[in-house]
């Protein structure tokens, strides 16, 4: 893999540093000079195809009066497209997963647009990130490595390990709390799109609460309550999750309409299939990667310039979900790709552990710290699954955060797409912080309607 020269030098230098420790004040000072406040390189690339980061807000990406999110780049046209005929020409900037999609499906292509570095955050997040750079460390927990001494910002803006980069993804800035309505679709092996879920979610990140402090933080960094409204056979189902930095303490509950009871999920983790995706995705493929890190060794490969989905507000502009759902993947007409620098992290299964994907590779956007692409390999070393996330620019948060995500299964031909907003009227709306009681099994039981 051809690494970005500056990143390659940084990785080599950091390998000699003490493991699992915060950086020095001198290193952290780069967040105000050569690096952005979140830890990305401020400068553009040599040929100008990646611009410098300015920190300026992108206009007209908020929610309109009719409940739709605007596309600030609606008038832009693709610079070029990449398909099976032109893949070799651009191979150095394509992930193996993208190449596998192009090779398997003759009508799959990516439309590459001008790069915009839209990822920004409030000043409070920048300030917290600067503090975390010095105070945060990675410790061994019961569910693998976990951050300590971090709160309110990117925990490791100058990462020294693959595990630190993955925690940056898990704790990436998406807002403090939000409400949204969306649909998820299952693609059957014979090519039929089937509605798997029509959901309404309330989500909050106590990690980013205004009054949060590292000393008092109890570890629950993400809380979600999801109510299923359709299809009819699933209407009334609900799920509540409380994710902890120590993933052995993470808890999830499901409300079952047939029993009118709340049950605790025994293993909402790792390669366990998710019920809301009809079993097509696993829990650790939600938004490209989620849950515990202890089954794998995490190698920080370095940084690379790659074509990735980005600023894909155009995915949400068609009025119908069917306009976005293509033959066996999202319609290339409605997915925007750009050239960005990404951190590359490889996960290799530890001896004695089991997983359906013994090896995976993740691509994490340097500006937002969100994993946007991945490929998961089977036991024969072949790309078998391609998780992806589509970052959407949202000036009202402000953030550039994944909204739509999914997984293409290249072995079975089945796929799952989640987070389609086209026929919904609440597209990731920022909210005041929710009360803790909202995310409890008792609250979910009290709201059961079937």
TrEMBL record:
Signal peptide range in chain numbering: 1-21
Keywords: Signal
Pfam families given in the database record: DUF1329
Gene3D superfamilies linked to this entry: Lipoprotein localisation LolA/LolB/LppX
Record-given protein name: DUF1329 domain-containing protein
Organism: Pelomonas aquatica
């Amino acid at each position: 893999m051809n690494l970005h020269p500056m990143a390659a030098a940084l990785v080599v230098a950091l390998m000699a540093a003490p493991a699992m420790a915060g950086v020095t004040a001198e290193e952290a000072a780069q967040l105000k000079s050569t690096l952005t406040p979140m830890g990305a390189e401020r400068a553009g690339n040599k040929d100008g195809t990646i611009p410098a980061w300015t920190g300026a807000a992108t206009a007209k990406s908020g929610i309109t009066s009719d409940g739709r999110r605007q596309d600030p780049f609606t008038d832009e046209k693709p610079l070029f497209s990449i398909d099976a005929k032109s893949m070799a020409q651009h191979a150095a900037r394509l992930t193996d997963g993208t190449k596998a999609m192009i090779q398997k499906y003759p009508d799959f292509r990516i439309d590459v647009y001008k790069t915009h570095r839209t990822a920004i955050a409030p000043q409070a997040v920048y300030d917290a990130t600067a503090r975390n750079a010095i105070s945060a460390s990675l410790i061994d927990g019961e569910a693998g490595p976990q951050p300590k001494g971090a709160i309110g910002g990117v925990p490791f803006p100058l990462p020294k390990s693959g595990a630190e980069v993955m925690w940056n993804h898990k704790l990436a800035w998406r807002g403090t709390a939000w409400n949204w309505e969306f649909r998820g679709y299952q693609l059957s092996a014979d090519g039929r799109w089937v509605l798997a879920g029509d959901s309404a979610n309330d989500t909050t990140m106590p990690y980013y609460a205004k009054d949060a402090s590292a000393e008092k933080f109890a570890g629950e960094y993400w809380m979600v309550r999801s109510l299923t409204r359709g299809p009819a056979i699933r209407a009334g189902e609900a799920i509540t999750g409380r994710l902890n930095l120590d993933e052995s303490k993470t808890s999830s509950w499901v409300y079952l309409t047939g029993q009118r009871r709340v049950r605790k999920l025994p293993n909402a983790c790792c390669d366990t299939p998710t019920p809301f995706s009809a079993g097509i995705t696993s829990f650790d493929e939600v938004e490209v990667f989620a849950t515990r890190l202890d089954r794998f060794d995490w190698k920080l490969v370095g940084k690379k310039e790659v074509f990735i989905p980005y600023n894909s507000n155009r995915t949400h502009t068609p009025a119908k979900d069917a306009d976005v759902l293509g033959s066996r993947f999202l319609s290339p007409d409605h997915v925007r790709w750009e050239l960005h620098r990404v951190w590359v992290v490889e996960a290799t299964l530890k001896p004695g552990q089991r997983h359906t994907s013994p090896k995976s590779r993740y691509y994490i956007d340097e500006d937002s710290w969100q994993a946007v692409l991945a490929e998961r390999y089977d036991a024969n070393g072949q790309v078998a699954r391609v998780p992806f996330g589509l970052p959407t620019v949202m000036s009202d948060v402000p953030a550039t955060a994944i909204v739509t995500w999914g997984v293409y299964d290249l072995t079975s031909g089945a796929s799952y797409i989640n987070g389609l907003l086209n026929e919904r009227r609440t597209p990731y709306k920022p909210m005041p912080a929710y009360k803790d009681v909202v995310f409890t099994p008792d609250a979910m039981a009290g709201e059961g309607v079937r």
